[in-house]
């Protein structure tokens, strides 16, 4: 039942707090856990898996007194968080492609975290996002994609995937802070497993190092 799953999540977070952990590692599920292991060096089972209950898990973390949270998740889940959706199960509304389209348009129009499009560089290819005259066409194409992975693939073709996932990570961070009433300092990693792109907020790596006890 949902109640039993929520109690499991609450207990897992409580145990992390009782152990004195300063940073809570949180991920929706197996994709995030695999990414944490393979790309970030976090052993399986160390992060709390919150399934679709991201909003509830954030609330539990705040109630347990955590001040720092590192949320790592697949774009298919966390794109919903960018739109303020606390429970990412499809029965509560599946707006993934609508929200992907919104992210693309916001990056096109406003840039990431106050930056302009001229500030963006694709980390893999060191190229500018090739928005240009294709802005409206690209946004519409993203909105018609069948999956977020397909959308990221199209974005990668025009060297815009990194910019959009970085921007998505920033929006997730803002939502987590809002849901915690400002109690949690959140950093986030949003990734595409198929296309090998990961968007991160500025202190995500520092939070990971802090969790590992390196600083």
**Major β-sheet annotation:** 5 strands, mixed
What is the helix content? 40-55%
The rounded distance between the terminal residues' Cα atoms is: 40 Å
Give the beta-strand count. 5
Quaternary structure of the protein: single chain
Looking across the biggest beta sheet, what order are the strands in? 2-1-3-4-5
Estimated share of beta-strand residues: 5-15%
What is the mean predicted local confidence, pLDDT?
Answer: 88
The structure class reads: alpha/beta
- The residue ranges in which pLDDT falls below 50 over 5 or more consecutive positions are 112-128
Task: Sketch the topology as an H/E string, one letter per element.
Answer: HEHEHEHHHHHEEH
- Molecular shape: globular
State Rg.
Answer: 17 Å
Number of helices: 9
Explained architecture:
With 215 residues, this protein is α/β, with parallel strands linked by helices. It is 50% helix and 12% strand. The chain is built from nine helices and five strands; from the N terminus they run H-E-H-E-H-E-H-H-H-H-H-E-E-H. The protein has helices at 2-18, 30-40, 54-63, 75-82, 96-110, 135-143, 148-157, 161-179, 204-212; strands spanning 23-27, 48-49, 68-74, 185-192, 197-200. It has a five-stranded mixed β-sheet with strand order 2-1-3-4-5, sandwiched between helices. Strand 4 and strand 5 form a beta hairpin. Helix 4 (75-82) crosses helix 5, helix 4 crosses helix 8 and helix 6 (135-143) runs antiparallel to helix 7 (148-157). The longest helix has 19 residues, at 161-179. The radius of gyration is 17 Å and the shape is globular. The model is unreliable at 112-128 (pLDDT under 50).
